[in-house]
Description:
The protein has one domain: Immunoglobulin-like (Sandwich), CATH 2.60.40. The chain has a 7-stranded antiparallel β-sheet. The chain has helices spanning about 1-15, 25-30, 60, 95-100; strands spanning about 35-40, 50-55, 75-80, 85-90, 100-105, 115-125, 125-135. The protein is built from 4 helices and 7 strands; from the N terminus they run H-H-E-E-H-E-E-H-E-E-E. Helix content is about 20%, strand content about 30%. By secondary structure, the chain is an alpha+beta fold. The model has no long low-confidence stretch (mean pLDDT about 80). The chain is flat, with a radius of gyration of 25 Å.
Amino acid sequence: MKVFVQNMAWLFIFLACNGCIEKADDIFSKQGTRICIEGVISTNQRTYVRVTQSAPYPHNAINYEKGKYPGVQNASVSISDDAGNIDVLTLSTDEYLAKSGYYINTTHYTKLTVGTAYTLKVVCNGQTYEAKEVMPVAPPAIDKWSLQHAK
């Protein structure tokens, strides 16, 4: 009986390690490039959106440092609220920020209101990307706190 259990264990290990395997290079090479959109929308700082393009595998690991993917410089970026106000962001005039794909509002700071729904719209390479979010209520300020040792 002990030999049977031992043989079954070896058979299980052999079958588990000998499954259908596809090369990772084949999986990643089929994906191509992707548009990556990130940004900061806040009530107390300047609004910006960064649009970058990923690189296909294996180039993303070889040719680019961490987080330094090429910026997209031909996108159309706007932020609108539920009242119909539209704020168009333009590519930064700073050379480094422009190459990195940063879009900012150059005419004025966007005045955001707590509880208002905002829509970010990015049109890039014929594709439209949209995200909608409600500006959350800020947590109350902490005016006093204390620390007690529990026994």
